[in-house]
Every structure is written in C-alpha cells, then in structure tokens.
C-alpha cells in the first residue's frame, strides 16, 4: 500500500494538483454509501486512494457497517499515494457537510495533523485506520494492524528459513516519514535479529508500495549486490515487482522474498511460491469497527480512544519451527476479511 513525500507538492504544481484533487474527492464523497442515513448520522471515510485493492476492501467493510448501524457513509480518496492536499480538502468538505466522525488512512502522517485538529475542535470524532498519524494522539483512536508485529513475524520467518546461512538482505521500503513503512521495516529487522546499519543489509530502496517501482528497486539492488538472498518488501505489490526482477535474472528460486498485507492476490502469490511468507492484515475489520465506533459516539457521546489491534497472521505453505503460521488455504479464506 502506498505513500509519497511532501516534496512533490511545490509552488504552482501544488496549487494545480490540490484543485484537481478537490474536484475528484468531492465527487467521490458526494453520494451516500451504505445505510439510508435515516437517523441523520454521517460517517466520513477517507482512504489513501480508491484503486488499491486494500482500500477497496476497506470501503466495502465501511459500507456494510454503515448499513448494519443505520448511518450514512460519505467516502473520498486521494488521487494517488501521498496526496495529502486532496485528503485535507476531503476533511474540510466532510466537516462542512456535518459528519459525526471521520475515518482516515493518512497519506502523510505529519502533514495531515493540522486539518485533523481543526475537525476535532469542531466536535468531529477522528479515527485513523491502518496508518497512525504522527503524533498518534492527533486522532481520537487508531484501528490498525500492529505493523511492528507484522514486520517482526516475517523477520522471524526469514531468519528461520535461512537456517544459519549468511544473509545478504535487501529492504524494499515505502517512503521516508510514513509511519506504517517505518514500523514494518523496524519490525522486520527486530524479527530477523539485526540492527539498522548492520553489514548484512546490503541495499535499501523506497518503492511507494508500487509494483513497477518495486521491480526497479530490486533491479537497482541486484546491480549493487548480486548475492542478495533475502528480500523484505513493504507490501505484496512491491514483492511481486521484486519477483519479476529476480525471475528476469533467473534468481527467483534462490532468493527468499517476504512481505506484508495478505491480500487475496498476495496470498495466491505465496501459494504459487513467488513470495515465501506474508503477514496478513484485515482492512475490512478496521473499517467496520471504525464505523461502529462513530455510530456509538452519535448515540451515547462516548468517544473511542487509544489503539485497537485488528490482528495479523503469518501465512506460508512452508512453515518453520518456532514461528506461528497458517497455510494459504486459511489465508485465501480470510484474505482481507
């Protein structure tokens, strides 16, 4: 999944992009999704994009929860990973439309904070989904995977799979300053038992969680160090990009690739042997629990608070002693549920 830095938004380009984003997001959020809204309660959902399958599933969960709780869901999304300006516009539009709460997967953990503070000051309950803000208490609550644990699980798995063999590690990361990427990266290193800067880490590249960029990043890493034998990836699109690059060099059977997300496509890639293991998370649960929290707030005024762990499971068909996991049959049944 997905997310680029603020540097892309410069002067005139920033203004033009924000204008385009505003139009797109207003259109996305103009129609009611989910329940009839008979009780007049509106819940806003703002995802990073509306094309990434992870966020498509998240929206499905929110729509069903809106129906179940008798509230109206208004949705919006950035035009691309990293579109902070578009998310700010969406927040402003939703607050002006009278939403009781906003659920958001922030594109920029820090830059989104001022807009969220303004919303909260007007009495709107704000809940982060999937990715925390920086600082985390810039939202009332967080419903998300324990991303450190997700990284730690695949790190432990990779360590066990190497069975004492010297590791040459490439990390295909997200983007600078995005909390979810930092947490998964740190978790992987912890699970593998190496510190940042360890000589076994021979290459680090950002991918934005994108498959094409993941392929380019892997190609760059192989040019830098042809003996890479472990690849950590921020998500499964990046992992599949890495696999494409490895296969082009005839290395797909010689390099261990591990990842995070557990989407249906990614889990199939584990079953096919393209990815050795993945940490499966559950975006539908994040969204449905978030919608219910806003509905409860509208009914009784009690705000959700703190962090709610929505679960993570290591999925692989090559289980390793000492590392808890489920097979791909389980993973395909549960993918993103």
From TrEMBL:
Organism: Streptomyces gardneri
Protein location: Cell envelope
Signal peptide: 1-32
Keyword Lipid metabolism (UniProt): no
Molecular function, one GO term: carbohydrate binding
SUPFAM superfamilies membership: Periplasmic binding protein-like I
Taxonomic superkingdom: Bacteria
Protein name as it appears in the record: Sugar ABC transporter substrate-binding protein
Keywords: Signal
A GO cellular-component term linked to this record: cell envelope
Main location as per UniProt: other
């Amino acid at each position: 999944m997905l997310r680029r830095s603020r540097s892309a938004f410069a002067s005139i380009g920033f203004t033009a992009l924000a204008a385009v984003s505003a139009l797109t997001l207003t259109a996305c959020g103009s129609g009611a999704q989910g329940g009839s809204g008979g009780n007049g309660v509106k819940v806003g959902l703002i995802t990073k994009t509306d094309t990434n399958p992870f966020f498509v599933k998240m929206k499905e969960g929110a729509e069903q929860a809106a129906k179940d709780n008798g509230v109206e869901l208004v949705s919006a999304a950035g035009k691309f990973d990293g579109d902070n300006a578009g998310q700010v516009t969406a927040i402003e539009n939703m607050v002006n439309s009278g939403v009781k709460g906003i659920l958001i997967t922030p594109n920029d953990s820090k830059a989104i904070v001022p807009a969220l503070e303004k919303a909260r000051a007007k009495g709107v309950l704000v809940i982060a989904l999937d990715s925390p803000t920086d600082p985390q208490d810039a939202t009332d609550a967080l419903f998300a995977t324990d991303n450190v644990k997700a990284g730690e699980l695949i790190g432990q798995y990779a360590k066990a799979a190497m069975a004492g063999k010297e590791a040459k590690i490439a990390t295909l990361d997200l983007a600078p300053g995005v909390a979810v990427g930092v947490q998964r990266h740190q978790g992987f290193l912890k699970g593998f038992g190496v510190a940042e800067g360890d000589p076994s880490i021979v290459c680090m590249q950002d991918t934005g969680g994108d498959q094409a960029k993941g392929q380019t990043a892997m190609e760059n890493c192989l040019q830098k160090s042809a003996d890479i034998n472990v690849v950590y990836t921020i998500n499964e699109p990046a992992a599949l990009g890495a696999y494409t690059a490895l296969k082009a060099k005839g290395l797909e059977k010689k390099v261990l690739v591990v990842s995070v997300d557990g989407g249906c496509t990614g889990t199939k890639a584990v079953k096919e042997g393209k990815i050795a293991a993945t940490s499966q998370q559950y975006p539908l649960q994040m969204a449905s629990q978030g919608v219910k929290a806003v509905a409860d707030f509208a009914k009784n005024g009690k705000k959700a608070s703190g962090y709610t762990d929505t679960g993570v499971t290591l999925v692989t068909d090559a289980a390793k002693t000492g590392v808890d996991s489920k097979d791909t049959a389980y993973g395909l049944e549960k993918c993103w549920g």
